[in-house]
Amino acid sequence: MEKQTTIGVIIGNRDFFPDRLVADARTEILKELDKLNIKAIVLAESQSKLGGVETFQDAQKCAELFKQHREEITGVLVVLPNFGDERGVAETLKLSQLNVPVLIQAYPDDLDKLDVARRRDSWCGKISVCNNLYQFGIKYTLTTKHVVHPSDPSFIADLKDFIAVCRVVKGLRNVRIGAIGARPGGFNTVRYSEKILQRHGISVVTADLSEILGSANKLSKDDQVVKDHLEKIHNYAPSGTTPSEALIQIAKLDVVLNDFMKTHALDATAIQCWTSLQQNYGCNVCTSMSIMSENMLPSACEVDVTGTLTMYAMQLASGSPSALVDWNNNYAADDEKCVLFHCGNWAKSFLPDIQISNAPILGTTVGVENTYGALDGRTPAMPLTYGRISTDDTRGVIKAYFGEGELTDDALNTFGNRAVAKINNLQGLMQYVCRNGFEHHVVMNASKTGAVLKEAFENYMGWEIYQH
């Protein structure tokens, strides 16, 4: 079962509409939330008329309740069983000072129930509520249908997407990323601004690679912690022809990286690889990065901090691991397909035929014997959301692009971590990427979460986005 999510619920009311509508809505919405394992923080029926929010006094009570659960609440659902009191909704959100995503739901009227005793007017009331939230400067999310019953499949889908938006926004505003090592000299493409990220709540913790390698070199194959990590690696993926000495080197490095993440309470890492690790330590770090990403602690190579930030965001949206890839090759003469590639650090969710191997391209300059730890494997057909977050330092903004496509089973005879992607108007996308100075690294996730990312990035984070 998925981890339980907690949201605040505001049930709007207006005194000249039937109270029964509020009571029914309370029962219906709580039932739907319970089905989705969502905990609701809502006024009790004894705290206001039927637990609704209508007066300023109701707003004060509801805001105080939300404040008591500030650490739990990731979003707020506004329910309008009738026209509702737009001021009551806006005042509640203002007084609570939660600064979380807000979803506005309004009930539909029945054509045979438009008499004074049974009409709702929620269609009109929703516009008024949104108008007030706009005036108050409070960001909000709309349902696909302007009015919709809580049991309608489209609302259930909207609610699931909204919960994902809440996860993304909460996660991005508090994420801690470890930048381990210096950006390789040949990778100007992964430059970024720590200061711009920090303004958006994204913290970067740096470490010199020599500190990490120095600590790893102090460990020996006889240390129990090294034996434990070696066993973890054996259980994670077949080692193929990888020498035992290389596996021990990988395990020692894995120990230190895990300790560093725990010490600094990190959610993700970006690690220098090309080519210091191979020359100064004698292995690739890909296996450790793959294990971390598979365990929802995403890791990107070449100190690509905004790359691993993108991995984390997509992971939050989908609930599944992400992978950092290169926009790498054309796929024959097909203008809507391309090859995605990396030496070998993708989470094994993408690699059913995973095997620990080496990195042949890198090996041509540093010696293949120093590149064990890279993974080999082919990603089969699966859904695809792709994208990239970047800091545009000269303009002082965070920008992003993303879209959806498919990973295919098309033939691909090569090595490393590899996949074939099919994307509509791929040539237009590449024009956009190149003209707007985005990196050659992109992130893939086996999901269809474009709408979630758009709402989270653009509406709540205030970033410049392009949805392909």
Automatic annotation (TrEMBL):
Keywords on record: Carbohydrate metabolism, Isomerase
Gene Ontology terms for molecular function: L-fucose isomerase activity
One GO cellular component, as annotated: cytoplasm
Pfam families recorded: Fucose_iso_C
Start and end residues of each L-fucose isomerase C-terminal domain: 340-465
Domain of life: Bacteria
Sequence intervals crossing the membrane: none
Keyword flag Isomerase: yes
A biological-process GO annotation: fucose metabolic process
PANTHER family, per the entry: FUCOSE ISOMERASE (PTHR36120), L-FUCOSE ISOMERASE C-TERMINAL DOMAIN-CONTAINING PROTEIN (PTHR36120:SF1)
Name this polypeptide is given: L-fucose isomerase-like protein
Species name: Pedobacter heparinus (strain ATCC 13125 / DSM 2366 / CIP 104194 / JCM 7457 / NBRC 12017 / NCIMB 9290 / NRRL B-14731 / HIM 762-3)
